[in-house]
Amino acid sequence: MRVTTLSTTRRGLTMDGATSFDHFRMSDELWEQMNAVLPIYEDCGKGGRPRANLRGVADAIFYRMRTGCQWKAIPRCLAAGSTAHAYFQEWVGFGVFDDLWQLALEVYDELVGLDWTWQSVDGAMTKAPLGGDATGKNPTDRGKLGTKRSLMTEAAGIPISLIVDGANTHDIKLLQETIEHCLVRWPREHNEFDEHICLDKGYQSASMHTLIESVYHYTAHVRSRAEEKRELKRQRGERPRRWVVERTHSWLNRFRAVLVRWEKKIDNHVAALQLACAYFTFSRAGVFG
């Protein structure tokens, strides 16, 4: 007699009673960090409808960000989609996800240490079928609407700055704003580190060199992949520097809600990116075990 071990996909239950979407729940360690930056909700003491379970709401938001599903498709055992969306909008307004990312950077710096010696900046474009704020015609996707994120990482690829604009915005126009955002998030003296910044050929211009070397006191390294490989062959023992930002873009795309932007509001899309940045920063810091 053959015994099936397949899960019941309609109800989302496995044979041992566990849900088939447990993999997309927020871990206990991440919830502990997020709970530290959530607003304090006080009990009014006047009765009425009880407040939703915040852990379930956080799980629902995390599930939606990882899977990219619609809010109404969130499993009800986590939270109602409308409830999760309402709390998400409220937490976006409070800056919860930005605070979580900042906390992740502080934890990483304490446990591992942020390496400011080598930094990298690169842009990545994603589809935005519904349009909305900070979208534009993607020149690499037959003019369809898209969004560009300009990402800055430190030497190990930890995201330290993020700016979002339309897909038709040139990388050079976003560079200064990306650097400024990094300095606001992590203020430091110009002479505190001997800082290098790695860029691809898309950033090559005289004004860019003046900006990053004279204004921000970086040592600029603008090379194509082929040039970088040739230089590394001449300098044995060295390793590529710029690829880490491309790897971080790939990390962020594991959040399906980030891979394709469905939010019309730019603040909601940025919040999803901030949650992804926080998650992978905590992960690289070893917080999740």
TrEMBL record:
Species of provenance: Rhodopirellula baltica (strain DSM 10527 / NCIMB 13988 / SH1)
UniProt domain Insertion element IS402-like: residue ranges: 26-101
Give the Transposase IS4-like domain ranges: 122-280
Q: Which Pfam families match?
A: DDE_Tnp_1, DUF4096
The record, for PANTHER family, names: PHP DOMAIN PROTEIN (PTHR30007), TRANSPOSASE (PTHR30007:SF0)
Q: What is this protein called?
A: Probable transposase
Task: Give me any GO biological process, just one.
Answer: DNA transposition
Domain of life, source organism: Bacteria
**Molecular function terms, GO-annotated:** DNA binding; transposase activity
